[in-house]
Write a structure and sequence with these properties.
Layout lengths: L2 H12 L3 E2 L2 E4 L5 E3 L7 H6 L3 E9 L5 E10 L5 H8 L3 E2 L6 E12 L2
Antiparallel strand pairs: 1-7, 2-7, 3-6, 4-5, 4-7
Length: 111
């Protein structure tokens, strides 16, 4: 293995600390439960970074409904991870539902 390949492999092995944290929230309701998405293993192995934006409704009871990925780069790589995570979120109850809430998740290797 050449020097560049060895350095890349070493960097990839030490880049186990990644972020998949929410970036921009467009809701004003208090979150009572939040789950960070898991970094997809295939994307992590291949060193793929990117983001996904999810749009959803928060019911009056505080549950997340109708979550869909509205933007992602690269497309299709992080969709399942963010949808699985957002389904576990909960918000404080309110008088009515909040529609069109968007959340961006950034996926970066190495922090």
């Amino acid at each position: 293995m050449n020097k560049t390949g060895t350095m890349f492999l070493a960097a990839a092995m030490t880049a186990m600390a990644f972020t998949a944290a929410p970036a921009l929230a467009q809701d004003d309701r208090e979150r009572t439960q939040v789950e960070a998405p898991e970094y997809p293993r295939g994307a992590e192995r291949r060193g793929i970074e990117g983001y996904a934006v999810v749009e959803y409704t928060v019911s009056a009871e505080g549950t997340v409904e109708n979550a869909t990925v509205v933007e992602a780069s690269p497309e299709g790589v992080f969709d399942r991870a963010v949808l699985r995570a957002i389904e576990g979120w909960a918000y404080a109850p309110a008088a009515s539902a909040s529609e069109g809430v968007q959340q961006r998740f950034d996926f970066n290797l190495g922090g």
